[in-house]
Amino acid sequence: MAYDVTSWFVDQANSKISSPVRKFTIGSSDYSDRVTAWPMLKVAWDQVRASKLTLTLANDDGVMNFLQQDKINMRQDCVIGVGFTHPTSGAETITLIAGKVEKFTMSKGTMRLTLADKFKAFNERVVGTSDNPVSYTGSNYLVSDIAWWLCTSYGGLDSTKSTANPDIDYANFSDWASVFSGDSVFLNARFTGMKVTEALRKISQITRSAIFPENDLLQFHRFSFINSYAKTLDNDTIIDLSVGVDDKDITNRQYMALDYDVTSRYHKSTVVAASSASVNSYGVREASFADASMWYVNSLSAINFCERVTTTQDEPYSKIKVRAPLVGMLRQIGEMVYVTDDQVGISNAVYRIMNRTFNMNTGEVSFGADPSQLLNAFRLDYSALDGSDVLS
């Protein structure tokens, strides 16, 4: 679960008729009653980016002018939260974003104010330059080591290697890192001015990992068959659901270029994996990955990527879009849900949450889920590495 809340909160979040409360504070002052338009918060498994939320506030009486009169006030801590008011113990809220005022505009008694969280630095800081590249080419580097250096040395996050880290969910990071250290998955990289955001996105792509900020911590996940279980969503908790299938999602032959030569500027070899059964059923559906900023250093590491793709995307899969009460906000990206919906004929089907959007104005959560990352296809017992699947 993405947030640590009480069972009472969960009960309220499950209800289609509950009334969530919204909270907005600057420093120690509460300006919730001034907000006339709340933002939407979006998170996706493969989009490494800072959260930026824009609110509209009433300012007929000029109370919000303090931001314009002394710009240092923009550096105060701001929090946007949502929750419910308990009949006896008061409000219980979760923090959706904690950050600083990035910009604002004022006119005709209103203010539009944008907050950016602490991961904003990822969008502003670059790794290396064309004249002075940052190179991880002198040895074989674990994926997790490169990711850690990007986040801390270049992204400015705390480097404490324990659960006390205030910026990185270290428990999740350690689990994620153990996948690559256990299987000896190695990369090289060379950055010549890429922003930290884009560099982390490259890692997400080349490892099929989820890297995203949530609950004020940077999350790292590698999906296996069972990462975590979320309760069933059914007719009682689903407001609306749609399902779609598109065969363009099929990839049954995947190429990966590897061992890049930074001097000659070419990849020395390529590997490929294919699903014969899928090719026979749907025809060849090819994809390739070749990158000069980050690459696998050996066939064993690269073939794992290819196999993961062709195992999880060898047939068209159902994608669902679910609109639900606030309970959807409590589910973390990557969690598995069991879905039942009589109207579209789904009964206890297994999906993994891949993206989520929370509309603070309506109090509803929309999320997309599919089974494309349900299997753990990352394996090292590939028997044909010396056969036709390795191209030199």
Quick structural summary:
This protein is of the alpha+beta class and 392 residues long. The protein has helices spanning 7-14, 66-69, 121-124, 143-154, 170-182, 196-207, 276-282, 299-312, and strands at residues 21-26, 29-30, 35-37, 40-44, 52-58, 78-86, 90-107, 110-117, 126-127, 134-142, 186-191, 194-195, 210-214, 217-221, 240-245, 253-261, 266-274, 286-289, 294-296, 318-324, 336-341, 346-359, 364-370, 390-391. The protein has 4 domains: 7-117, Thrombin, subunit H; 125-221, no CATH class; 240-246 and 316-370, no CATH class; 248-315.
Describe the protein:
With 392 residues, the chain is an alpha+beta fold. It folds into 4 domains: 111 residues, Beta Barrel (Thrombin, subunit H); 97 residues, no CATH class; 62 residues, no CATH class; 68 residues. It is 19% helix and 39% strand. It has 8 helices and 24 strands. A 7-stranded antiparallel β-sheet has the order 2-1-6-7-8-5-3. Strands 4, 15, 20, 21, 22 and 23 form a 6-stranded antiparallel β-sheet that branches. A 4-stranded mixed β-sheet has the order 18-16-17-24. Strand 1 and strand 2 form a beta hairpin. Helix 4 packs antiparallel against helix 6. The longest helix has 14 residues. It is globular. 35% of the residues are buried.
Helix content: 10-25%
| CATH topology call of the largest domain | Thrombin, subunit H
Spatially, the strands of the biggest sheet line up as: 2-1-6-7-8-5-3
Overall structural domain count = 4
What would the principal axes of the Cα set say about the shape? globular
Name of the top-level CATH class of the largest domain: Mainly Beta
Span of the ends, CA to CA: 45 Å
Low-confidence runs of at least 5 consecutive residues: 376-392
Mean pLDDT: 87
Number of helices: 8
Question: Biggest β-sheet, characterized?
Answer: 7 strands, antiparallel
Strands, count? 24
Assess the beta-strand content as a share of residues.
Answer: 35-45%
CATH architecture of the largest domain: Beta Barrel
Radius of gyration: 23 Å
Q: Helices and strands: which structural class?
A: alpha+beta
